[in-house]
From TrEMBL:
It comes from the Bacteria. This is Penicillinase repressor. Belongs to the BlaI transcriptional regulatory family. It holds the Pfam family Penicillinase_R. One of its GO terms (molecular function) is DNA binding. Keywords: DNA-binding, Transcription, Transcription regulation. Transmembrane segments: none annotated. Signal peptide: none annotated. The keyword Hydrolase does not apply. The gene is blaI_6. It comes from Gimesia chilikensis. The keyword Plastid does not apply.
Length: 132
């Protein structure tokens, strides 16, 4: 079964990044983070973004206090995986290899990053011994 897809716009992603970084925030706190000298219309824009994200189960709202507090209902890794899956489907016909090749060849990797990648590969697909 395919995981649930979260369609998040770039502006909604800004809101989620604030929630991921802070853990929780009010509408005002999110607005102040995104628009430091924000206007009333920008406050209402953030409020609308939070409402849309809540409807799609991307954020949760604590209504127990007078000022509502929001938290992210999805984590950064889940959204990254979803977006990469969408790119893979769109650009590579569902194959992950061309995308991985492109990501790996984008820049030079440090020795520690290379080791992290090897460890990750070993976790998802342990190497078989020659006797297997």
């Amino acid at each position: 079964m395919r995981p649930k897809q979260y369609h998040v716009t770039d502006t909604e992603l800004l809101v989620l990044q604030v929630l991921w970084d802070r853990g929780e925030a009010t509408t005002r706190e999110v607005c102040d983070e995104i628009y430091p000298d924000g206007s009333t219309s920008q406050y209402y824009t953030v409020q609308k973004l939070l409402e849309r994200l809540e409807k799609r189960n991307c954020v949760q709202r604590d209504r127990s206090q007078r000022v509502h507090v929001f938290t992210a209902a999805i984590d950064r890794e889940t959204l990254i995986q979803e977006r990469l899956r969408g790119l893979s489907d769109t650009l590579c016909g569902g194959s992950i290899i061309p995308m991985l090749t492109g990501l790996i060849q984008m820049r030079r990797w440090t020795a520690s990053e290379q080791e992290e990648l090897r460890d990750l590969l070993d976790q998802v697909a342990p190497r078989q011994s020659p006797n297997d």
